[in-house]
Protein: N-acetylgalactosaminide beta-1,3-galactosyltransferase
Organism: Cucurbitaria berberidis CBS 394.84
Amino acid sequence: MTAGRSWVNFRRRNRTVFTALVVSFLFFYSCQRSTISTNIPNQHRNTLYCPQNPIAKEVLVVLRTGATEVLEKLPVHFDTTLRCIPNYAIYSDYEEDIKGSHIHDVFDEISHDLQQLVPDFELYHRLKTKGRDGLSIDGTEHDGSGPSGLLGNPGWKLDKFKFLPMIDKALRHRPQAKWFVFIELDTYLMWGNLLEYLSKFNAEVPYYIGKQMYIGEVLFAHGGSGFALSAPAMRRVTEHWRAHMVEYNQYTIEQWAGDMVLGKALKDVLVPLLWAFPHFQGDPVSTLDHNITKIDRRPWCYPAITYHHMPEDEIRLLWKFEQEWQRTHPIDAPLRHADVFKGYIHPYLSKERAEWDNYSVNPEFSKTALKNGEAHTSFEACRSACESNPMCLQFSYRTSMCLVSSEVRLGRMATLQCSEYSTAASKCDKKEEMAVGMDEEGQGAVRSGWMVDRVAKYVSAMDQTCNPRMDWIV
Ligand SMILES: *[C@@H]1O[C@H](CO)[C@@H](O)[C@H](O)[C@H]1NC(C)=O
Ligand SMILES: *[C@H]1O[C@H](CO)[C@@H](O)[C@H](O)[C@H]1NC(C)=O
């Protein structure tokens, strides 16, 4: 009160001094602020950079999950990609709220006949009657319900039944949406690129867009790589499904993958698949070979929309990278796989990296490169083996085991070495456990190294393969 009064008196007495003070204060303050923003990089840490694409509000992103994995895998998305997505819906086999988001039960309208017919719905019943306590305590159901889960996992067996009801529910959830994009909890979605891509299409036309895959004769978009459906495609397939539910239930019982069942239903209503590799693709950023060729396309030159099999820490790191990209690039510069390689991967490819497995798994190549027989004796001998073959780009070494590769992969923190990597499943199929004790330098964990000069040449050679046609696949 006293301070207020004397301030008023002061102002009345000398307006000029007051004005001068305010001006100099503002001047000083603005200098301070510009100093702060140029000198402290962390200034940007809490600023969120979201793409300002007008179609953002016309897209519903749908996440498909299950009670066995959702608690572990969902929260990271609230901290990262979902922050920029205005409309999303989460479908599971169990209704609950997680961090303020509602998780919908995708099965709540499913026919009793189907539930009776399929013993795997036992898990659903237990969840419904006992809540989370209905998940068995022996842990066998806690390995994830998505396709990356174990085949014997009841959560995974139920997963294939989710797709068609999910399409139907998503359409009713947001009937005004023009696009519906379906992902899983280990899918990383580059939202800005997705919006840029979808805006190339006429959403009045039925579209089904994703990473092509076949099971037998049926062509479909792989679920974990993410896929998009325009509203007309959604309406067509749900109407047809509602009219032929018994047949589709029977078909689903006979098949093992729900994304394939959906692909069949879309084929039945004559909505063709647009083959969108490598915008949509099935590898995590740490194991993607950027020079892999599928349907005559290599990832390198094309904008990236999805990664799959992404563990939580990699989702956080890639999000940070993508945010930085959004901050420093004009709105219309799509983030290409090459940009991810150059900005996110290349800086970490060094001569040596401890406790790191860069998935140097190229069996044919290894065999010929290792004819010199010394490679397994030390990290340096392994490097020499790689050096002696001009095609070799990277290697990994663990006590008595040297692996080399003509492909470049970032890899991951690891102690054991991966000796068989499945490109189909994007995961290590076989880890070398037999190696014993410490190596000659007292290290027991796998180490990796890159031919740094050759990787630099690889980058320019890859850039040479790009041409302006390799932009958005429409
Ligand atoms: C990319 O892969 C092809 C084989 O598919 C190979 O011939 C080519 O040398 C590779 N490019 C680079 C830069 O390593
Ligand atoms: C391979 O592993 C090393 C660590 O030894 C890591 O620095 C590098 O990023 C990995 N590189 C590739 C291409 O896999």
In short: The chain has a mean pLDDT of 83. The chain has three domains: 3-46, 56-275, 353-458. The first helix runs from residue 2 to 13. Residues 348-350, 352-353, 356, 358, 394, 408-411, 447-450 surround 2-acetamido-2-deoxy-beta-D-glucopyranose (ligand 2) (CB under 6 Å).
